[in-house]
Write a structure and sequence with these properties.
Strand content: 5-15%
Distance between the termini: 46 Å
Structural class: alpha+beta
Number of strands: 14
Radius of gyration: 24 Å
Largest sheet: 5 strands, antiparallel
Helix content: 40-55%
Number of helices: 18
Shape: globular
Number of domains: 2
């Protein structure tokens, strides 16, 4: 959830079906007119001129679409953001780039409307709180206000869902699909329909604050004895289906320049912790927060050395669970990456329909993509492709020097171009995006990590079963628990 940096305030949201349909109908009409005019004006151009002009026009159309969507807030903006995150495989690059410009922080909803919403949700309990009118964070579906419980002085935050946005999700999805159709740049395929169904499910889950409260409490229980992490405590007394109350946890954003002044060892410890929580979510709990946005993390630093620097985990609304079959394949991919073994990586991809349907050449290309993506987890002595420039004097992986994200994206794009490519499974895209988010986190932090420690972090929670799944005791490879083996 973005920090509030704008003075623009909305007195109301267009959340009624009629108002939103009217706004989007006007946008659709303008898009249709522009597209028709563009087609007529290109009649007397040669093919190269027309292609060049059409690309520029698509960029203009896409940005106009994003600008108009940004005025609506609510689930329309959230839909656009989700498609920007996961739509590069089925949306034109012009659309993806424009949707990435959608900003949570375009405006805040006026205190008059927010206060009335809180009163409606809390009734007489509202009198027990002193709520600050200026929000400390805004997003497409809600904004966050700091508050005090007057009887105790406890600092809390209220995540206030914008009125009407939950009821507008289904109609917003339908309207968004219409808009994409009018742009005439997005093929209306079954894959697109499947993704809209997935987004619909995620959004309905995200606006259910009872579910988010339960998930937050579950993660609090899992991490309460690990002092590297802070999960806010839910305060049920002031929470409802549309209002979430939790303890106020102070920290700084991941991008805060002061973090760059921390010692290398402290930044390494933070990097280790952020990768470890990712691996725990996927491989141990089978339950992952799907939004890798930096706004969902804060960092709390400690100078006295009595506590480690801590990661504050925020926003447990967009969650996904994974079945054992997918997790088994993911574990095998990690094992192959650890030993940087192309044949093992190809074998690990078997049994997953998306990979099984690939031609042998594309299958091998994708296996190579996974080898690159798991580079930070690979044993340097087994990875001849690992440049010595990416390792420091202690053999730790230098994230800021790796350009790993760019290399993975370039390789995967080339592999996909050689295939009559179908939309990757949703679970696969969620996991890949989560890794990309963590990789970006470590790159910004300029952290360095050790491959053995990364792998050991996901074996220690389930030492008997989980470790055996990843590292078969019959393997010819050395025991990772012995750093000198």
């Amino acid at each position: 959830m973005a920090n509030n940096t704008t003075e623009q305030t909305l007195d109301e949201l267009k959340t009624s079906s009629f108002d939103r349909r009217l706004s989007i109908a006007k946008t659709s009409l303008q898009l249709g007119k522009r597209w028709a005019g563009n087609s007529v004006s290109g009649l007397f151009m040669n093919k190269d001129q027309r292609d060049q002009r059409n690309q520029a026009f698509r960029q203009q159309q896409a940005q106009y679409l994003a600008d108009e969507l940004g005025k609506l807030k609510g689930s329309v903006v959230k839909i656009g953001q989700m498609l920007a995150l996961y739509g590069e495989h089925f949306l034109p690059p012009e659309i993806t780039a424009a949707l990435q410009s959608l900003n949570d922080n375009t405006a805040t909803l006026s205190w008059r409307v927010i206060e009335q919403t809180i009163k409606t949700q809390l009734g007489d309990l509202y009198q027990e709180l002193e709520v600050e009118p200026v929000p400390i964070g805004t997003a497409s579906l809600a904004q966050v206000h700091r508050a005090t419980i007057t009887s105790t002085g406890q600092q809390i935050v209220l995540k206030v869902q914008y009125p009407g946005v939950a009821d507008a999700i289904d109609s917003d999805l339908s309207l968004f699909k219409q808009l994409l159709k009018v742009t005439n740049t997005v093929p209306q395929t079954r894959a697109l329909d499947d993704w809209f169904a997935e987004i619909q499910d995620l959004l309905h889950h995200e606006v259910n604050y009872h579910a988010e409260a339960a998930t937050t409490e579950r993660f609090y229980q899992r991490l309460q004895h690990d002092n590297r992490y802070i999960v806010p405590q839910i305060i049920r007394r002031y929470s409802s289906e549309r209002l979430l109350c939790m303890t106020y946890e102070q920290g700084v954003p991941v991008t805060d320049v002061r973090l760059q002044n921390l010692s290398q060892s402290r930044r390494n410890a933070i990097g280790q912790a952020i990768i470890e929580i990712l691996l725990q979510e996927i491989f141990v709990w089978g339950e992952m927060q799907t939004d890798p946005n930096f706004g969902n993390y804060l960092l709390r630093t400690h100078e006295d050395g009595n506590l480690p620097d801590q990661i504050i985990l925020l926003d447990f609304g967009a969650m996904r669970q994974f079945d054992e079959h997918l997790l088994s394949i993911a574990k095998s991919l990690m094992q192959a990456g650890f030993y940087h073994d192309l044949q093992a990586m190809q074998a690990a991809m078997q049994g997953y329909a998306f990979f099984d349907n690939m031609s042998p050449k594309v299958h091998q290309d994708m296996a190579q993509v996974f080898l690159t993506a798991t580079e930070p987890f690979s044993l340097p002595e087994h990875n001849a492709e690992l440049s010595t420039e990416l390792l420091d004097a202690e053999g730790q992986y230098r994230w800021a020097a790796s350009q790993l994200h760019q290399r993975v994206m370039k390789q995967s794009s080339q592999a996909m171009q050689s295939l009559e490519f179908s939309l990757p499974p949703k679970e696969f895209m969620f996991i890949s995006r989560k890794f990309i988010g963590a990789y970006t986190f470590l790159t910004v932090l300029d952290a360095r990590t050790d491959s053995r420690e990364l792998i050991k972090s996901i074996t220690k929670s389930q030492p008997d079963t989980f470790a055996a799944d990843i590292f078969d005791k019959n393997t010819a490879h050395e025991d990772i628990s012995n750093p000198h083996s």
